[in-house]
Write a structure and sequence with these properties.
Layout: H1 16-38, H2 41-59, H3 66-93, H4 98-117, H5 126-162
Amino acid sequence: MQQELDSLGKIKRFPLPAKMLCWALCAACMAVIFWFSSRTAAESSAQSDIFLAFFQKLFGDGFLTDFIVRKSAHFAEFAGLGFLFALAFYIQCGKTKTPFAVLCASAYAVTDEIHQIFVAGRACKIQDWAIDTAGALLGALILFALLSVISKAKKKKAAQIKN
């Protein structure tokens, strides 16, 4: 079986459709974040209240506050985006580019905060950008850890086959 080579003569690890899919997932995640940020403060609060009520039924009153639910949502959205950017860079480049993934997600977080200035009842907050960036870092690091575990398992299996 002959493997396809890129313009530099290196073996292509991932086909173009896989690369396109990863970048499309990044764009889709960004669109979802944009949609959430487009909701007015009242709409966003009502949405947070649904999650808050659910968790209060599970764990009792006082377990979570609206503030924690909102900040956790910021963190989770950008953890997903950081993971997807890290995956897209890995698929595109064939190696991890964690700093670039975090930088891209953090830059998008800046635009997200600026976008919220124009939404009724919302505001641009540096603390939200920091939470978003921390989430992106965690998401990218989760992918890095998964790839490390997979790589070690493959090396171990190859060593067992060799012996």
